[in-house]
Write a structure and sequence with these properties.
Chain lengths: ~425, ~425
C-alpha cells in the first residue's frame, strides 16, 4: 500500500511539473502588459476573497494550536487584513518595477559579421519549498509571473488550507488575463513525498529555492537533482574598528541586533578591536543589556561588560560553538580582536557569507574590509538590517542567496531570469 | 581495509579543498598584473618543460593502448608540440582579455543615502571533473587563475601521468609570481572516491563543472551536493523554413553536420518545411550522402532522398528514439514539418537547449524562431558550429552550459565569477 501511495504522489507532482513546463512558453511570450495585468488581477482577487482566505487561515491556525505548535510559528502562519494589505502593496510595487525580460545584457558583432546579443529570458519552471508563512505563496507567485515564469509551490503542511485557497484565488487572476492557470500550482504539502519528488524533477524544473529553517535547506541542498539556490543562514557580524565613532557604533549595533532579532540579516556577533574596546564597549554592553540581550563573551570582553554593570544573568562565556551560531533571538556573541586582519579572518572562518558590517572612520580600513570580507553584502557604517531586495531596489525579494552561483545576496526579479544568445547572420559557416 | 582506504582518499581531497579555500583569498586579492603574470609564466613553463610533458603523455598513451582503449579516445589524450602551441596561443589571448573582477554591475543610492554597488568577484574554489583531454587541464587552470579563483582538477584516469606533470609545471608558474601553488591542485584520478568526495564538499567548493560524456555529467548532476553547472549534450537542429535560400541552406547544413561531427555544437537533426522540401532537400540529401552521412529519415523525407539518388545503405528509418539522439558522428536525422510552429514544438520536445538554427529569408519567421526556441543559442542564417566562448568574444571557454542557472551557453571568464554588494553609509539604521 505504501508503495502505491508513493507512486501516485510521484506521478502527480511530475504531471503538475509537466503542465507547468507546457504553460511556461505562454508565460515567456506574454507581453509585460499581460504579466502586470495578472498582478493587478491578483491584488483584486485577494481583496475580493479576503474573507474566504482568512477563514481558511483560521482553520490552519486552529489545527496548529490543537497540535501544540509554538506561538512564534503560529504568528508566521497568521494572515490578517493588515498583512494581506501589505501583500497587495508589494504587488503594486512589483507592477511599477520595470520589466527585465528582453534586456540586452551584452552584444557585439563577432566572426564574419554575425550580430550576437545576449538577452534576458525567464528561467522557465521555478520550484519553491518553504514553511509556515503563507505570504511567501503570494510573494513567490507574483515575482514568478512578473518575470514570465511558472511556479510550483510546496508550502508547509500547517499552512496547507490557507495555501490551497490562496493559490485558487491567484489562479483566477491568471485566467482573467488569459494566462494558463497551470503557471501557478500548489503541491500536496501533507506528504513528504511531494517535496522529494519535486527535488527529483531534473530537466522539468529549472531551479528549486528552499526557504525556511536550516534543516529544510540542508535537506534540499543535499538531495535535489534540480539546481538549487541556497538561502537563509545569516551569522552576521558587526565589527567595531579602533577608529569607530562611539555614537554611530552604538546605534548600528543596537539596530542590527535588537530591531528584529529573528531575521537572517540581524547581527549575531560583535567584534571589537581590543585596544579600543575599553572606550567603545561599556556603553554598548549596557545598552544591549538594558534591551534584554544576553552577551556571550570571550574573557576580555566579559570583564569589560561586567565592569560596566551588565548583570551576571545576561553574561555567558562563549564556547567555540558560539562563534558559528545564528541565535535569531536577543543573544549576541562578543569577541575582542587584535586588528582588522583578525576580524576578517574570524568572519571568514565562522560567518555564513550573508551580511557583514564594519564601523570605522578610517578610509583604508573601510576599503580593506569591503574587499577582504567574502560575503553577499558588506556594510561600511550602516546596519546589516538593510539587506533586503526591496530596499536594494531589486523590485522584490524571493529570498537571500548565501551561495555564489547564479545569484548572491537579496534575490529580486533578475534572480528568476536566465539568458539566451541570439545570433543573426547571412549564411556564415566555419 | 576498504573503509580505511576510502577514508584516506576522502580526507586527502578534503584537505586539498581546504588548502584551495585558504589560497582563494590570495587569488581574489591578486591584482590583474599578477594574475596575467601567472598566465605568462605558465606559457613559458609549458614551453621549457615540453619534453617532460610529452614523455609523461607518451606513458599514458602506451598504457591506454595496452588496455585496448579506442583510438578516438587516444587521440583526445594525445598532446604534441602543435597542440601545446595551441594552448600557449589560448594563454596569450586570455592575457589580452580585459579583467572582469571589480566590474561594477549595477549601483545606485538606496534608502537614507546609502551608496550601494554590486561588484564582480571570483567564485572562490572551482572543481572540474573531466575525461581524457589533458588540454582541459591547461585551459581550466588558466581561466581559473585569470578570474582570481583556485581550482581542483579531477581529470581522467588514463591521463593521470600527463596531468600530474602538467599541474606540477603550471604550479611552478604560480610560485614564480608569488601566488600560492595550492591555487591549482590535481586530485587522484586513479580512485573513483576522489570524484565522489569532491562532490560532497558543500561549503568548501563553490562550483563543480563536469565535462565529458553523458554518463559522467549525469553522475555529477545526480550526486553532487556542491552546486553544479551542467555542460555538454548538444542535440542541435537546423530548420529549413519554407523561405530558406537553397544555396545558404546547403552551405549551413553541410557545415553544421560535417565540418566536425564529434563536437556538441554540430547538427544532429534537420527539419524542413514539408511543402518546400521537394525544392530544398534533394541537393542537400545528395551532398550529405556524398560526404558519407547516413540519413535517418521520416517517411516523407526518405522518399525525397531516395528519389534524389541517395544510396540505400545511407538511408535509415527514424524511430522515436532518433529524434532525441546526439549522434556525434556522420549521421543526421531528418523530418519534414508542416510549419514553423511544428518545428519549434519538435525542438522543444527533443532538443537539448544547446544550439538551434533556422535558415529563412522571412523576417517574421526569423523573429518567431529567435523568440520561441528555448535554447542557449539561437542562430538565424548561420551555422550552429559558431557556438564557442572564444568566437563569442567571452575571453575563453571552460565549457558550454546547457542549464539555465548561473551561466547558459558558452562559458567564458564571467562564468567563473560571482558578485558582492558593497554598501557605504554614514551611520544609517532601519
Amino acid at each position: 500500500m505504501a508503495d502505491t501511495l508513493t507512486t501516485t504522489a510521484a506521478s502527480s507532482v511530475k504531471q503538475q511539473a509537466q503542465a507547468a513546463k507546457q504553460a511556461a512558453q505562454f508565460l515567456a511570450a506574454a507581453p509585460i502588459e499581460v504579466r502586470n495585468g495578472a498582478l493587478a488581477a491578483m491584488s483584486e482577487e485577494l481583496l475580493t476573497n479576503e474573507e474566504i482566505i482568512l477563514a481558511a487561515n483560521m482553520l490552519d491556525i486552529d489545527a496548529a494550536r490543537a497540535e501544540g505548535i509554538h506561538e512564534s510559528m503560529i504568528d508566521r502562519l497568521t494572515l490578517n487584513p493588515e498583512r494581506l494589505a501589505g501583500c497587495r502593496q508589494a504587488l503594486a510595487e512589483l507592477i511599477a518595477f520595470s520589466d527585465v525580460l528582453g534586456e540586452v545584457i551584452e552584444g557585439r558583432t563577432i566572426a564574419q559579421g554575425i550580430r550576437m546579443k545576449q538577452v534576458r529570458v525567464p528561467l522557465g519552471v521555478v520550484g519553491m519549498i518553504y514553511e509556515a508563512r503563507p505570504n511567501v505563496t503570494i510573494d513567490a507567485a507574483s515575482i514568478a509571473i512578473k518575470t514570465g515564469n511558472t511556479i510550483l509551490l510546496r508550502g508547509g503542511k500547517i499552512a496547507q488550507q490557507t495555501n490551497d485557497v490562496l493559490v485558487d484565488v491567484l489562479r483566477k487572476a491568471l485566467v482573467k488575463v488569459g494566462l494558463p492557470d497551470e503557471a501557478l500550482q500548489n503541491l500536496d504539502a501533507t506528504s513528504r513525498d511531494s517535496a522529494h519528488e519535486l527535488m527529483g524533477l531534473h530537466g522539468l524544473v529549472d531551479v528549486l529555492i528552499p526557504r525556511g529553517g536550516a534543516g529544510l535547506i540542508k535537506n534540499v541542498v543535499e538531495n535535489s537533482k534540480v539546481p538549487v539556490i541556497e538561502t537563509g543562514t545569516g551569522n552576521c557580524h558587526v565589527y567595531l574598528h579602533e577608529a569607530a565613532d562611539l555614537e554611530m557604533a552604538l546605534s548600528i549595533v543596537m539596530n542590527a541586533k535588537t530591531q528584529r532579532p529573528s531575521v537572517c540579516n540581524a547581527a549575531e556577533s560583535l567584534l571589537i578591536d581590543d585596544w579600543a574596546a575599553k572606550d567603545l564597549f561599556p556603553s554598548i554592553a549596557m545598552a544591549l543589556a538594558d534591551a534584554g540581550t544576553t552577551l556571550v563573551c570571550d574573557e576580555a570582553s566579559k570583564a569589560i561588560a561586567a565592569a560596566a554593570g551588565v548583570p551576571a544573568d545576561l553574561l555567558r562565556d562563549a564556547t567555540e560553538e558560539d562563534w558559528g551560531t545564528e541565535y535569531l533571538d536577543m543573544t549576541i556573541s562578543v569577541k575582542l580582536v587584535s586588528d582588522i586582519d583578525e576580524a576578517i579572518a574570524h568572519i571568514d572562518q565562522y560567518g555564513s557569507s550573508h551580511s557583514e558590517a564594519i564601523v570605522t572612520d578610517d578610509y583604508a580600513a573601510a576599503q580593506k574590509f569591503s574587499a577582504g570580507v567574502d560575503a553577499a553584502a558588506v556594510y561600511v557604517n550602516a546596519s546589516t538590517r538593510f539587506c533586503d531586495g526591496g530596499l536594494f531596489g531589486l523590485g522584490a525579494e524571493i529570498g537571500i542567496s548565501t551561495q555564489k552561483l547564479h545569484a548572491r545576496g537579496p534575490m529580486g526579479v533578475k534572480a528568476l531570469t536566465s539568458t539566451k544568445y541570439i545570433l543573426e547572420g547571412s549564411g556564415q559557416i566555419r
